[in-house]
């Protein structure tokens, strides 16, 4: 065979694609044996007061000449399905048709005006067919937009133990939600039996105004219309769940302020349903008028019936320009038979004994806790244009020690 013949055959062979064995016959630059990859990215989102739809993209690295399939599902973490988010795109399987490189998972972020920690959940990918999973999950992080909460970073902290006492109960508010084995929400405006909760208060109590934030109980009072009232707040009780007789009680809290704002950390006699108020006795460990944010009161209420109601009260203030909103303080009570001592930051400032009061002494019985922020009423008066909302009472912990 001549040299010309050989050259002609080689040229013909090249024209026929003989040197392109690694490429498909259509001239695609992607090698025929390359498997595409599936990816999914993390997604940060902001939670607002309204529901919002967000898109999460599942990507294929290259087009495929055959169908690609992958399964997906949501997995709750600190964010819970049905409470914080919902899948709009039903969990199941995506099938990428030849030529498709992207699919979208739609997720509804459930909005509210409840203050919450940053939360997250995952979208998991699995069972990939004809593709390789590069990332098997996406983390969706939900940041709360209700950022007007100020939690002090300083203030007084009480002792973790006391000589001769044992810690018998505490709530450190460290969980993601309110511990309902300890607390019950009282709801409404007190009507029809006790409209305005007996004090001409203006708020409607609802659970939505309670949150747990960074290890703190937060009760938020808001100026908003609900249930026929112009303000909302929360009121928590331990009645029927936790009650106590005697001991050392410590409550570390920072308090709200403003004309007409009325925070309280207090107790009622557990026999209230049998003997009514004030015969059951009431112990106000702390109550504050928001227009006097540098001073609070400790008060005991007693008497055989409402018409013969009596009370005794002691006041305690801070010096200079300090107020109870800027830092944490510990409101305490040393409670023994025939003796109540009220303390601020471990210093006694007011004492009650049977000799203090003119009447029957009801404070040697079991009592339960009430934590609330009222708005308006007989004690603080009503808010005015100077009152800023929202206002929060922040409780770091409550602890009960007994001998």
Give an account of the 3D structure:
4% of the residues lie in helices and 45% in strands. The model is unreliable at 1-32 (pLDDT under 50). The protein contains two helices and 28 strands. The strands form four sheets. Strands 11, 13, 14, 15, 16, 19, 24, 25, 26 and 28 form a ten-stranded mixed beta sheet that branches. Strands 12, 17, 18, 20, 21, 22, 23 and 27 form an eight-stranded antiparallel beta sheet that branches. The relative contact order is 0.15. Strand 21 and strand 22 form a beta hairpin. It has helices spanning 3-15, 272-275; strands spanning 37-40, 43-47, 52-60, 68-76, 85-87, 92-96, 102-109, 119-129, 132-133, 137-144, 166-171, 184-186, 203-205, 210-213, 216-226, 229-233, 235-237, 243-244, 247-254, 261-269, 282-287, 295-302, 310-317, 329-336, 339-344, 347-352, 367-375, 391-402. It folds into two domains: 25-144, Immunoglobulin-like, CATH 2.60.40; 166-402, Jelly Rolls, CATH 2.60.120.200. The chain has 403 residues and is mainly beta.
């Amino acid at each position: 065979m001549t040299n010309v013949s050989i050259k002609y055959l080689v040229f013909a062979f090249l024209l026929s694609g003989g040197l392109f064995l690694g490429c498909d016959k259509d001239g695609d630059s992607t090698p025929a044996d390359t498997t595409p990859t599936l990816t999914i990215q993390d997604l940060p989102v902001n939670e607002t007061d309204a529901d919002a739809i967000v898109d999460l993209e599942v990507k294929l690295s290259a087009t495929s000449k055959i169908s690609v399939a992958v399964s997906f599902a949501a997995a709750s973490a600190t964010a819970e399905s049905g409470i914080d988010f919902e899948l709009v795109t039903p969990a199941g399987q995506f099938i990428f048709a030849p030529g498709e490189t992207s699919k979208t998972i739609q997720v509804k972020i459930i909005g509210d005006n409840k203050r919450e920690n940053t939360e997250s959940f995952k979208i998991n990918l699995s069972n990939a067919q004809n593709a390789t999973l590069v990332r098997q999950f996406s983390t969706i992080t939900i940041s709360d937009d209700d950022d007007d909460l100020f939690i002090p970073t300083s203030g007084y902290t009480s002792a973790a133990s006391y000589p001769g006492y044992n810690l018998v109960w505490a709530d450190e508010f460290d969980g993601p939600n309110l511990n309902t084995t300890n607390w019950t929400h009282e709801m409404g405006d007190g009507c029809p039996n006790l409209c305005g909760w007996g004090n001409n208060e203006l708020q409607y109590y609802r659970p939505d105004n309670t949150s747990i934030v960074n290890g703190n109980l937060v009760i938020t009072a808001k100026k908003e219309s609900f249930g026929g009232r112009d303000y909302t707040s929360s009121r928590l009780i331990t009645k029927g769940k936790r009650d106590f007789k005697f001991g050392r009680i410590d409550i570390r809290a920072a308090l709200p302020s403003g004309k007409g704002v009325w925070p309280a950390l207090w107790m009622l006699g557990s026999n209230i349903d049998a003997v009514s108020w004030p015969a059951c006795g009431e112990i106000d460990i702390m109550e504050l008028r928001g227009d006097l944010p540098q001073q609070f009161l400790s008060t005991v209420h007693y008497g055989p019936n409402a018409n013969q109601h009596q009370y005794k009260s002691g006041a305690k203030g801070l010096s200079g320009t300090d107020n109870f909103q800027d830092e944490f303080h510990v409101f305490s009570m040393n409670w023994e038979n025939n003796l109540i001592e009220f303390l601020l930051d471990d210093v006694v400032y007011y004492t009650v004994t049977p000799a203090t009061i003119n009447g029957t002494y009801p404070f040697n019985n079991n009592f339960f806790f009430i934590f609330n922020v009222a708005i308006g009423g007989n004690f603080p008066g009503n808010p005015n244009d100077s009152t800023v909302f929202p206002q929060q009472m922040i409780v770091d912990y409550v602890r009960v020690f007994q001998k």
